[in-house]
Structures are given as C-alpha cells and as structure tokens.
Amino acid sequence: MDVSQTIETEEDLLTCLHIKIYHPHQASQAFYCLLPLGIRKKHSADDPLRFGRDAQACAFTLADPRVSRKQLALHAYRTPQSTDTFFTLHNLSQKGRLSVNGSVLGYLERMDLPDKALIRFGEYEMLIIRESGEAKGTFEVELEVLVVPPSRETGMCVPTMTPIMDTSSCVMNGFPALTHGPSETDETLMSHS
How far apart are CA 152 and CA 93, in angstroms? Predict the structure, then answer.
C-alpha cells in the first residue's frame, strides 16, 4: 500500500459534532465565555472530548460553579463494518444526573450516541448532531448557543408538573366541565360503610 493512501489528508471529510447548548439563565450569566463558539475546532479521535468547569482537564469549559469539574466525556470509536466515526457519552459527574434522550446515566455509565441526541444535566440542554465523515484520526466540533431549549425544537419537553390521578373531569378554558359517563375508581380507595 502506498504511504500517501494511509496518511490522513486535509481533503478527507471529517466527522463533525454540531453541539447546540442552552441554559435558561445564559442571557444574564457568562457560562460560555470560555467556549470557542461558532468555529469548527479539530479534536484528536483518541482523546476524550470532555465538558466541565476544569479548564485543565476539559477541552470545553463551562464557567458555572454548579457544573462538575468533569461533567461528561465523548469518546470516539469505529466499527469494522463502517468507515464512520461514532461516539459514546460517559457521565463523569458523581453528584449530577445526566440524561441522553430521556435515559438517565449514573456516574461512569455510558451510552452510544445516536446521530441526534438531547443531553441534559443540571439546567443545561445540549443537542448533539453527528455529521458523518471518513477521516480516522480527527473529528471536528462546532459549538453554538441556542436562544430556546432544544427540547422544545425536538419535541422532547419534560413535563414541568407531576402527573395527577385521573378524576374523569375535563378542564376547558381553565374551568372544570361537566362530563357524563363512567368514572373509574380504585377498589382500595372505596370506603366500606
């Protein structure tokens, strides 16, 4: 095999992670002042891509004392059946919960990322979209700040209220409506006279 065929060149299409981030208080706080927003940054595929507040340990630093020193890591990998680069996400926070498309990950738990994933930790939401490429040694990361939560765009909103037991009543325009028909009850809730 010719050496020129084994060396990655600039013409190789790099996999790119488009990471769109949101925090409800981002307008009044400088959470993203240390992030390279709006530019594509190359990253070595054999080095985990870490997010957290520790600038020494993380490639992308969030200036927020509520974020863990090391919050999460993205690890690149390849499979024998594909030329694409894929990613797993590891939760590195011992105290904070992290979810991927609604599935909660505990400390040091990991999950393969789909091509489009909604990541949540604390009050942060990150939408990660993988654009496939063929280069093996590096990939690119592009960060963007969203003005609305990505969960609203993707339809993955988390209910803000706890579920309430169905009482067979309807509410229309803020007022209870009268309904006719069967009402279900739990046998254990019925009183015996």
Answer: 25
Residue 81 is predicted with a pLDDT of 83
CA–CA gap between residue 98 and residue 109 (Å, rounded): 10
- The pTM of the full predicted model, rounded to 2 decimals, is 0.73
In the chain, DSSP assigns E strands to 15-22, 40-44, 49-52, 60-61, 72-77, 86-91, 98-100, 103-105, 110-112, 116-121, 124-131, 138-145, 170-172, 175-177
- pLDDT of the residue at 87: 96
The model's confidence at residue 35, banded by pLDDT at 50, 70 and 90, is very high
Give CA–CA dist 37/43, Å, rounded: 15
47 vs 59: CA distance, rounded Å: 10
